[in-house]
Specification:
The chain has about 200 residues and is of the alpha/beta class. It has one domain: 3-Layer(aba) Sandwich (Rossmann fold). About 20% of the residues lie in helices and about 25% in strands. The strands form two sheets. It has a six-stranded parallel beta sheet. Its EC number is 3.5.1.19. One of its GO terms (molecular function) is metal ion binding. Keywords: Hydrolase, Metal-binding, Pyridine nucleotide biosynthesis. Belongs to the isochorismatase family.
């Protein structure tokens, strides 16, 4: 069975000192590097949040405060600080992430009108990123997922992986949650297990 490792959004803006830092983000990088060192993956895919300046998911683009919610193109949208803007340091992958074995990069969130948490598609399920096509082209049946953040981009990538027919495993030690609300990370784990994601310790 061919397997892929999907590393979600390990970018400077989501790590310590970034515009949208996830608590403990730096702790997962050695773990992810070790996974790549100790396992033989047929493909290693990075997803990269890659927003144009003025993206509609930014609070600053809507004259709103960070943490508010609006309806954006028919779906609820949390208002984030400006982050992962194309071509900026914040959008770059963290320097400590070993990219020697990376075979493919998927950029998401490029449409200024709609956000894209999942590595597979945007939030209104209108535009695909090409990740599913890439995995199917390479006969991948099992995906292991790590990265940032557990309660947003990792969760939706896992759920879409299951929906697209992949055996889907989440490495709990390879992810951290934003926890806008204290239980978001825990609730995300429960939701993923319920939908068929295997959570590995």
């Amino acid at each position: 069975m061919k397997k892929a490792l999907i590393i979600v959004d390990v970018q400077n803006d989501f790590c310590e000192g970034g515009a949208l830092a996830v608590p403990g983000a730096g702790e997962i990088i050695p773990y992810i590097n070790l996974l790549m060192e100790e396992n033989e993956y047929d493909q290693v895919v990075l997803t990269q949040d890659w927003h144009p300046a003025g993206h509609k998911s930014f609070a600053s683009s809507n004259d709103r405060k960070v943490g508010e919610s609006i309806i954006l193109n028919g779906v609820p949208q949390f208002m984030w600080p400006d982050h992962c803007i194309q071509g900026t340091f914040g959008a770059e992958f963290h320097k400590d992430l070993n990219r020697d074995k990376v075979t493919h990069i998927i950029q998401k969130g490029k449409n200024p009108e709609i956000d894209s948490y999942s590595g597979f598609q945007d939030n209104n399920h209108f535009m695909k990123t090409g990740l599913d096509d890439f995995l199917k082209y390479h006969d991948i049946q099992l995906v292991e997922i790590v990265g940032l953040a557990l309660d947003y981009c990792v969760k939706f990538t896992c759920l879409d992986a299951v929906a697209n027919g992949y055996i889907t495993c989440l490495h709990f030690n390879g992810t951290r949650a934003v926890n806008v609300k204290p239980d978001n990370g825990r609730d995300a784990i429960y939701e993923m297990i319920e939908k068929g994601v295997t959570v590995l310790g």
